[in-house]
Amino acid sequence: MTTNSKCSFVTVIGEPNAGKSTLINKIVGEKISIVSNKVQTTRRPVRGIVNLGMTQIVFVDTPGFCRAGTPLEKVIFSNFKASYKSADMTLLVIDAASKTNRQALSFIENQKRDESKFSVVINKIDAVKKATLLPLADKMMKYDFVGQVFMISALNGDGIEELKIFLRDSAPDGHWLYEQNQSTDLSLKIKLSEITREKLFNKLDKELPYSLYVETELLREFDTKTEVCQAIVVIKNSQKGIILGKNGRMIKGIREEATFEMKKLLHKKIELKLFVKVREKWPEKKEHLQNAGIID
Ligand SMILES: Nc1nc2c(ncn2[C@@H]2O[C@H](COP(=O)(O)OP(=O)(O)OP(=O)(O)O)[C@@H](O)[C@H]2O)c(=O)[nH]1
Ligand SMILES: [Mg+2]
Fold it and tell me: How far is the CA of 4 from the centre of ligand 2 (A)?
């Protein structure tokens, strides 16, 4: 873009629920990636872009470490592996409030030295006593390939400024890959689908969040309003009733919450229509994984 410009790809990895998406949203200053209190919220690598002076940082939000059991998990896991390659910097997010961090520790134990720089971010420090943090930080620092250990709260912003400065200062020289004002690589259709999926994730339990995807089937933008029509796709007919809820109450609540957030994003009146479709075995079909935005 300009001479002296720098550009860095920073891949953010960690256990499910560690706060990877929350962290990226905080640094980018916009909601790039949806957040929920359930594991496997992020299903595909999502890029969040922030420009710090002459430096462009391209964050890659990744799905958390997961077992590759169900067909959907297999796709999520291969998305994780693909996004982990070829980063200038890798940040491993550790949940300070988690009892074991078993998968993160096993990942770090098996980490081979490679070209990519590697740092650790201990997150959720707002949720634990200080006394528990130091032993965790000490443990991380004993790995010689770990460059830095940061202690942050992605929720309230503690420690974020230091992390930003570090990422800016360690970025390699290079041309910017994105325009000055671009904050993500997601299309508007997928962004809108993700907003609704987040509301569903936060309201539903058990296997249902993992049985659904949202597809924006229609998007029409006018000067004063935007019309959005979305399908919530589930695997089984019995799941349809749960999403609709008694007297349609569940889907109405989801529509209201999603409409509110879409309005904040587009600064326009939103006319959102939601309906539920059943597509058996959708996680096994490429076409549906593409409709879901899980693969390109
Ligand atoms: N107390 C506290 N909670 C946090 C913090 N960061 C994230 N959380 C919460 O942790 C939960 C998971 O956050 P996400 O950002 O969705 O986690 P993730 O690592 O992206 O999860 P997956 O996409 O499922 O792998 C949410 O309920 C967040 O609000 C933090 O710094 N402090
Ligand atoms: Mg996430």
Answer: 33
